Amino acid sequence: MAERGFQISRLPGFATMAVAAFVLLYLPIVTLVIFSFNASNSVAVWGGFSLHWYGDAWANQAVKDATVRSLVIGVSASVLSTTLATLAALGTTRRRAYRGQTLIYVMINQPLMVPEVVTAVALMIFFGIIKVATGYQGLGYLIAAHTAFCIPFAYLPIRARLESMDLSLETAAADLYATPWQTFRRVTLPLLAPGIMAGAMLSFVISLDDVVITEFVKSGGQDTLPTYMLGQLRRAFTPEVNAISTMLLGVTVVLLTAFFLLTRKRD
Amino acid sequence: MGVSLADAVTISARNVVKAFGQGSGVVRALDDVSVDIRQGEFFTLLGPSGCGKTTLLRLIAGFEMPTEGTILLDGTDITTLPPNRRPVNTVFQSYALFPHLTVAQNISFGLEMLGKPASEVKARTAAMLALVKLEAMAGRKTSQLSGGQQQRVALARALAPQPKVLLLDEPLSALDLKLRKEMQIELKRLQLETGITFIFVTHDQEEALTMSDRIAVMSAGKIQQVGSAKDIYIHPKNRFVASFIGETNFLHGTAEAGAIRLATGERIDVPGLPAGGEATVSVRPEQVRLGLPSDGLKATVRTLVYFGTDTHCHLALADGTEVVARLQSPASGEAGLVEGQAVGIRFADGAVQRVED
């Protein structure tokens, strides 16, 4: 009899555990989406179908302001972090192995390792000093903070793309009379574009979703969508929050789908 | 007195050393290599992997700088010139075609980088597509092509800017046998039609023998011998060359004037050999003749291996030294020999070549 390899699906109770895991993952989200269409103002008792919480959210000036702020911060942080991450990825992959490679890798990805609340407190104190010294109170602090923690999310897909790229393509371009800049412009950049797009989308989603750092760093009246929702929870809790969450979910799903389409391996 | 064009040197490597690594881990990939490659010739760098042949090619292309020595192109020092400023193009082992460009865009890449006018780029690209018979594929992405077609795009791309020298890094190794044979003929045709100097790197001795005007046999970072296919096959300079190119028998003995004396006490004529010391000679298996036991070196037939067109006869001399004779198989398929039979061995005229160790 042929020996069978270990198959996790043959473990007793595997199916039950798998179903339980998926239920736990998706049931709360499905519930949230369903109650965003609730006619009553309860987030737990169904009172019929209605779209009026979406209308309320749409008409709410505070929601509109928070949305615009989230988009401004998200787009700025995404563009800045992707640019920096592209440079970092080029600097760390386009050369022979060198001393301190791992240290630099760890330093670039620091935001993934340091507890977010620690970074948040540190930034709050640091920016507090700068605010006092300069008097500037604008969105710049939030954009800088978001850029910083978005860098690893932009860096990882770009680096992965660069590492899978055949280095001899750049050698071939140089062989065919391309200057280093022309090689970058005509060969490296076009081949890297899907990785850069993926990094930009992922960092935008990460920025859009951030609560902890934003909550600590923001000045008065600088609520983003997530911190606005957090603030709502402390007051009257209505399906308006469900409606906002559902829209945020929609945007995120669309962007993440695009991310996976861009990063999947092509044959 | 003028130098005839046929003998003009295109690439000249002078005392080139390339060392990799640091401290005690230094490896000399090239160890004092000097070679002249003539205008318009098909020159092959032949050797086993790790012999330095690809390193020499990369130095000529400008992808690496030599640790010591100089490289001249048409008499001009190009040792430190970056690759984009050398009129030298490469066909890479992996082809390295640009996956985001079409076949035609790949071919026109070099011409565009040289800043040629659009009309010339277009005309030259069309001419190159015709040269490699890929007109129908101009608009395709390179990933949609077969291995042989990709190979031809790589060739056309490298030839399009009309380089002075074309470098080919084992370009046929990824192809199957039939396609490889076709491409060998194709390459030779392209070289004759374009008149460009080809420097071809391979580890395949048959490929080297059939295609090259001259071959440099390399081993351990050094050039062992440079010469035509016939030169190298008939007059191998040393043991390495003799055994790397084709098969051979080595016989070792004491040098006497015009002969060597084997351990068995028998003598083999080696015209011109000075007396004194030890010497080794090489004899190709197809130059070994068998006769009656009374005729020549005494030997015994050990095994017979039938190869179709010929039969390999493994023989043992009186002291046990093995000698292989390649005999043309007779029509009946029987060589007229039996294992254990006593025979005499003679060598064809001029077949015994002294080799250095």
UniProtKB/TrEMBL annotation, chain A:
Residues 67-260 form the ABC transmembrane type-1 domain. Belongs to the binding-protein-dependent transport system permease family. CysTW subfamily. It is found in: Cell inner membrane; Cell membrane. It comes from Rhodobacter calidifons. The chain crosses the membrane at residues 12-37, 71-91, 112-133, 139-158, 187-208, 243-262. CDD domains: TM_PBP2. Its main location: membrane. PANTHER family: PUTRESCINE TRANSPORT SYSTEM PERMEASE PROTEIN POTI, SPERMIDINE_PUTRESCINE TRANSPORT SYSTEM PERMEASE PROTEIN POTC. It holds the Pfam family BPD_transp_1. This is Spermidine/putrescine transport system permease protein PotC. Keywords: Cell inner membrane, Cell membrane, Membrane, Transmembrane, Transmembrane helix, Transport. The keyword Acyltransferase does not apply. Required for the activity of the bacterial periplasmic transport system of putrescine and spermidine. It is a multi-pass membrane protein.
From TrEMBL, chain B:
It catalyses: ATP + H2O + polyamine-[polyamine-binding protein]Side 1 = ADP + phosphate + polyamineSide 2 + [polyamine-binding protein]Side 1. InterPro entries: AAA+_ATPase, ABC_SmlMolc_Importer, ABC_transporter-like_ATP-bd, ABC_transporter-like_CS, Mo/tungstate-bd_C_term_dom, P-loop_NTPase, PotA-like, PotA_ATP-bd. It is an enzyme of class 7 (translocase). Residues 11-245 form the ABC transporter domain. Its EC number is 7.6.2.11. The keyword Zinc does not apply. GO terms for molecular function: ATP binding. Keywords: ATP-binding, Cell membrane, Membrane, Nucleotide-binding, Translocase, Transport. CDD domains: ABC_PotA_N. The keyword Transcription regulation does not apply. It comes from the Bacteria. Part of the ABC transporter complex PotABCD involved in spermidine/putrescine import. Responsible for energy coupling to the transport system. Belongs to the ABC transporter superfamily. Spermidine/putrescine importer (TC 3.A.1.11.1) family. The complex is composed of two ATP-binding proteins (PotA), two transmembrane proteins (PotB and PotC) and a solute-binding protein (PotD). This is Spermidine/putrescine import ATP-binding protein PotA. It comes from Rhodobacter calidifons.
